[in-house]
Amino acid sequence: MAEDTTVPKLNFGYWLDKAIEWGQATTLESQKDVCLHLPQLREFLHQLYETVKHSGSTVAIQQFPLIGQLLGRLCWNPFVIGYDESQKTLMWCLCCLYSSEPQNAVELKANSWIRSLLCHLLSSSKWESNEAETSTFISALGYTSADYYCHLVKNMVVSLVTELRENQFSGLNILGSISASRVNAVSIFCVPLITLPDLTPLLETLLLYHGGSSKEILSSEFLEAVNEAFLKKKISLSESAVFSLWLRHLPSLEKATLHLLDQLFSIHWNSLEEVACVMKDSLLPQAASHPAIFRIVNEIFKNALMETDGTSGVMTVIQVFTQLFLQAHQNENKQHKFPLKAYFPCHHQPLVRGLVRRPFELPTTYRSQHLKHISDMLKALVEDANVSSLTDLFEIWFLVACFGEWLDIAAEQLLKDAVEPDAVLWLLAFYYCPKNENQQRTQTMAEAQAVYNHLMMLFSCTDLSLKDLEAAVHRITGIEQCWNQCLTTHLLTNFLLFSPGGHRIAQECIYHITKTTDMSKVYNLLIRTAYRFNHNGEEDQRTVKLLNELLQKLTLKV
């Protein structure tokens, strides 16, 4: 046996030779030699882990082709795994070799071998007998080795869950409490096994565990892996566990929000019910009941809107999300409900309270009054001398835009009910043209007023032709300013839907509009209207039928 225990750093071949020489340390001589080298071996394993932890399983094996043989031999040496933190470091190294998405039979077989070694290491403190005795014991229980490991994992999960929960509820018992480092280690050990169904109770317990530390005690690798598996539908978690994951790990929340946006814009929507279904399935609207989550998600949506130059599709997604968030917030138990100011801390609170009132919660006769109230508050804010920067103006505009249902109601109420048109037109003009540089909003307001007056003269006519609407259509197709075009399109589309004579010429008129304008804007306006009709059920079937026909025609073109 070698007497000199000074070994070059990361001398892989040396330690592999030693592992082969030691075997399972069954002789007195080999046991003595193992004990002599344990401190250096511990240091070597730590250095090995630091070398391979960021490289991935494929690169690690390319760098150390015999790493599996070395770790496998050391895992069955009772003197090695019983020394200090060597057992834990061996687990860490094994986790680095685990393929989270195995590509072939070799990687699948390697994953199975790693799982069996992890189970062995986790149970080694309770099984001090040799392999033959353990095998005899397994057979006596009537299990195969595969059954044994399966039951061992289940028992291990139950044991750890019980321990963590008891510690959570008896946090004041300092002597009996679990150390943060141990909880962190458990989370690391879970990383390669996250998609195992039997591990779900432990994952949820860890996510809901906080202990007494002010710092995050779960490893970031664990939190990232759980989030990734959840987003890819490889695991199913309770809502409370998912919410806790996003609250304690901001990158996971950001990734979940961007994943939702990618999902929504990788498919064509036939209805906003589809959008709402995808959103609810993501759990983000429900999680947004917590103000911290809502504010972060809202900020990501805001950035997405700015990066896409205010695309109508992104705005529609934000509006649907806001509606789902309001539903979740209203369903919260009153004892656990946060005040609105927690979600919109920097905004004028009377305006926030006005916007969060859902239109269907109010009698139809009161909606016009409520719209005027919103418009008056908004106008006072915008014209306030303190709102001088474009940033302040954008924040006010974005708040109003999130509650776009009120804007659609405003355009509808203008034509259907007795309202004060100036206040409602100003609200719409602000939405489509928030800046008033060079009198842009004033110009938009004048254009909208002219279109509105023209449409109101025709509203009661039952026998209309496209020529009667020629002036309004020309304002859409002939003007260059996007904001004027969008507002006029909004008013004219509602006229076609709600006027007695509009139904007959609706398809022809929409065809002329979409020849020269962005078709997606009309499409998004129509699917928002359909979504509102389906949820509120206030419109006559003739209007609903026309709306569905228009959507079917546009769906083929968008």
What are the salient characteristics of this protein?
disordered N terminus; mainly alpha; 70% helix; 558 residues; 30 helices
Strand content: under 5%
- Terminus-to-terminus distance: 78 Å
Kindly name the structural category: mainly alpha
For the secondary structure, the number of strands is 0
Instruction: Report low-confidence residues grouped into runs of 5 or more.
Output: 1-8, 125-130, 171-176
Radius of gyration: 33 Å
User: What is the helix content?
Assistant: over 70%
Outline type = elongated
Mean pLDDT: 82
| Order of SSEs | HHHHHHHHHHHHHHHHHHHHHHHHHHHHHH
Organism: Pteruthius melanotis
Protein name: FANCC protein
Pfam families: Fanconi_C
GO biological process, one term: cellular response to oxidative stress
In short:
It comes from Pteruthius melanotis. This protein is 70% helix and 0% strand.
How would you portray this structure in words?
Pfam families: Fanconi_C. This is FANCC protein. InterPro entries: FANCC. The protein is mostly helical and 558 residues long. Among the domains are: 12-123, no CATH class; 151-166 and 178-248; 250-332. The chain is built from 30 helices and no strands. The protein has helices at 12-22, 28-52, 57-63, 67-75, 78-81, 86-97, 105-123, 131-140, 145-169, 180-190, 200-208, 220-231, 239-248, 250-265, 272-282, 284-287, 291-307, 312-331, 340-343, 349-356, 364-382, 390-402, 405-416, 421-432, 440-458, 470-478, 482-498, 502-516, 519-536, 541-555. Helix 9 packs parallel to helix 11 and helix 11 crosses helix 13. It is elongated and about 105 Å long. Residues 1-8, 125-130 and 171-176 have low confidence and may be disordered.
